[in-house]
Amino acid sequence: MSISVTNSLSLRIYYGQYSALVKGSTRKDASAGTLSFADASALRNAVRRLQDYKFEDGTEAEIQEKLKAFSDAVNNTLDSGTNYAGNSSSVKNAVSKIKNLNKEYASDLKKIGITVGKDGSLSVYETASKLYKKEKFSKFFDKDSKYLNDLYSAAQRITRRVDVRI
């Protein structure tokens, strides 16, 4: 799985106190536990913030940036969780759950311009925010979305099981 390095404001906000871990050079120096905890926390923040975001009020550029940040948070969580999984079967199961969720909801994700790779990673069409109506994003990122709520729960399981000292 390839991780793209981005300097998105949304991604830095999702990472909060761990915002330094958004960049590739800092990620390499972090422990597996710290990275996994930060990535899963960012994914949880991304889910909640996107569920609260008013897509109808956003510009195409803002929506595109949020989709990319969401995709990066998912991919980073998968990558760091996979690296940490040898230390915890709970983390391994949560990573597997995220991959399976992505594959299960691949057709729904595609309807908003996000494709799912064979490894469960996400990628966003460069023009997703132009190709799809804002209402589709609002509907997909709804508070009642089973996909997002299950994704949040899997990320929460990772944050609860990771030892940042490892």
Give a short summary of the structure.
The protein has nine helices and two strands; from the N terminus they run H-H-H-H-H-H-E-E-H-H-H.
Descriptive key words:
mainly alpha, two-stranded antiparallel ribbon, 64% helix, disordered N terminus
Distance between the termini: 22 Å
Number of strands: 2
Q: Biggest β-sheet: count, sense, barrel? A: 2 strands, antiparallel
Main β-sheet, spatial strand arrangement: 1-2
For the CA atoms, what is the radius of gyration? 15 Å
By secondary-structure content and strand pairing, the structural class works out as: mainly alpha
What portion of residues belong to β-strands? under 5%
pLDDT average, as an integer?
A: 92
> Could you say which overall geometry the principal axes of the C-alpha atoms support?
globular
Low-confidence stretches: 1-6
Amount of helix:
55-70%
Tally of helical runs: 9
The H-and-E topology, N to C, reads as HHHHHHEEHHH
Q: What is the domain tally? A: 1
